[in-house]
């Protein structure tokens, strides 16, 4: 039995080109990994993390578990295409071995086996199984067609705008399985066999079409099937579908601890090319939903960075609230990649900009508990005053790091892309904390909290947000509050919630004071206040528009008071609602007994 026909040429050319390009891309990316990352990879392979990576590949790359959480119908669509095609390939190879034993069969022999196997006795089990799997995949194709017309039915208000390469690959992919159905059905019409799907269609065609027409149609159908496969494979490395072969190594690299940093690095390519441009990140973006800005979302940022056409406006116009990252089915480090792009575009030599830091220590107090207010808390003096009352009520001796002025934590500069300048501030503050021998560092600013935990070297110093510290005082009985009948709506700050994973502590403190009313979007899905220091592009008026949309949702809870745990959020929400807005520390200080 020969496994070659002229119609195989488009498939062979496309598949060969694809595998060569994939090996070249993977090889160059791995070769350019930092030596430390290559060592992490080598050391990670023989560990249990590899098994965890394999499990994640099955759950996410094939079954698309995260997309199911967004919308079950959307999850089914992606799963039927990915897992269904995988099963078709696997079952097809098993079918070939069942017919021919362990003899060598070239790749096109497996792919076009139904064409080459017309002189073999059919095995009904495989006829049924292959038709069932084909129908499974075709149902996903039908849903994909439907999604382009009615995306809302699959849980997406908006879909991604594609570049030409994506359109070519997408059109070819949509045609692959209908073309396969047509080719195999026409072969069944001429030679018999097939399952309930291809055999059924083939039987109907054999009764209603002339043999001469069937012969010509069969040849054209197999040419069509091979051609769309070849076009898809040729376009894949240059299109969104590169994610099929990039998400898998990304999962392994991530399990081995290889992640993006504040500077662009070769490992970033695995992150950038793993984006499938599914568009799931678009709907959560408040820039789109409130302001109508529709060309800066993470899907477009990653696309533009991949193709070397990233504009400064796209990199800068993001709240970095993390709502899109929370939804990303691939788990791409979206904010980190945007930060590294900003660093490349914005970072400037320091020269002597920060010479004034020498001898700037204006701290006061001698306690082992240090309090770092941060820039925004110093601009909301009621929060600072409330914390002073709480410390006094608890009998806490406090070292005040910056009450009389000090140095910024550095995160705003990092968010703006000036990481080298930020590092100077971080070194100054680290030396200051060490010099005063504190064991606990409390801050009221989630922005400061996150940078202290993630980017400072503060081993031996416990870093707490004031919500955590206040709850600890309440539980230890060091302060007491009077419970009332007030109704409080809590707003989760982005950097405190999605950024630092702190959701329960502020709620526990509020529940000690009165009734907690949850907004429609809360916890991981909470809305950004709009005043993020990470966005340097939108106007003050646009910030107010976002704040009003958030304020309207919080007002809908019927709460007497809106509570947040971030000074920046407080300043924003005050402009977005007529309901009183308080920092968590304020309502605690007011309720002290």
**How many whole angstroms does the radius of gyration measure?**
30 Å
Beginning-to-end CA distance, first to last residue: 91 Å
Structural category? mainly alpha
Mean pLDDT metric: 92
Number of helices: 28
Helix content: 55-70%
Largest sheet: 4 strands, parallel
Beta strands, count: 8
Oligomer: single chain
Estimate what percentage of residues fall within beta strands. 5-15%
Major beta sheet, strand line-up: 2-1-3-4
| Shape type | elongated
| Low-pLDDT residue intervals, each spanning 5 or more residues | none
Task: Describe this protein's structure.
The chain has 593 residues and is mainly alpha-helical. It contains 28 helices and 8 strands. It has helices at 9-31, 35-44, 48-62, 65-70, 72-100, 107-111, 113-116, 124-149, 164-191, 198-208, 211-235, 243-255, 268-273, 286-289, 298-306, 312-316, 323-327, 334-346, 375-378, 381-394, 411-415, 419-435, 446-454, 466-476, 504-511, 540-555, 567-574, 584-590, and strands spanning 369-372, 398-400, 440-443, 462-465, 487-491, 515-517, 561-564, 581-583. The strands form 2 sheets. Strands 2-1-3-4 form a 4-stranded parallel sheet. The chain has a 4-stranded parallel sheet with strand order 6-5-7-8, sandwiched between helices. α1 (9-31) packs parallel to α11 (211-235) and α9 (164-191) runs antiparallel to α11 (211-235). It is elongated, with a radius of gyration of 30 Å.
